[in-house]
Give the backbone structure.
Amino acid sequence: MSTLTKQTLSHLDWLEAEAIHILREVAGQCANPVLLFSGGKDSICLLRLAEKAFRPGRFPFPLMHIDTGHNYKEVTDFRDKRAAELGERLIVRSVEDSMARGTVVLKHAGESRNKHQSVTLLEAIEEFGFDACIGGARRDEEKARAKERIMSFRDEFGQWDPKNQRPELWNLYNARSHKGENIRAFPISNWTELDVWQYIQREQLELPSIYFAHVRPVVRKSGLLQPVTELTPAKDGDVVEDVLVRFRTVGDITCTAPVESDADTVEKILAETATTTITERGATRMDDQTSEASMEQRKKEGYF
């Protein structure tokens, strides 16, 4: 008589299995989904999960990035390289294109383009007829994101109503939508920043170099480190320092700040992440510091 032994799964195994299940639900329920890939750490994890969900076949969706035109070159170069390595189609649509069309108008030349990505995203959804966008947002990042369902419904105007969402009892997901409506799917919604780094370590995933400690000129402003670049030059009276930093999250140069850190390996980043008490967006996103740029309001307008 044979004995059955129960395999003990780690918490990463459970999170991975849930994410793979969600990816397959999107592929099964939606006619024309797309996976948003920026080259950042969360979307890098999504690509590995998609490989496990659908290889040896091709992904049942293309990859897409909404580029502000002000992204760190290390990240966009990595984005292009990784998509080419996988042999998957990468669609890039730029906020600059929306500006040329007149659908995005900046208040002034120095205004951050980050919040205007929602316009370009909605235009891309209409252009390609996507009925679902898969993204790497997590509930632990920010309080508005904590309100999202796994399958988060958007109406025909691309808007999100946090008070009008579909129930997801017993992990049953409803991705059905009418023409013009859209689903935003979040396979790693239940992951934490620490989970992401543990998964990166386990899967030995390659990352853009700016996630690791390096020396960069910065100016200290409002408790954050503003990088000194051509787009964000030092102003009169600013004190420029060369500081050992790394990025916890990456995005538009004008609103993404690094943190002081000597963590130059995944192991050191794991140790640092395990002891931090500040969320990655709270520590690094300059556009989250004002009520005008509140995440919930941006999401209601179509932001991912």
Notes: The chain has two domains: 11-195, 207-292. The chain has a mean pLDDT of 87. DSSP finds nine helices and ten strands in the chain. The beta strands are 33-36, 63-67, 90-94, 132-134, 151-154, 182-185, 214-221, 224-227, 240-246, 259-260.
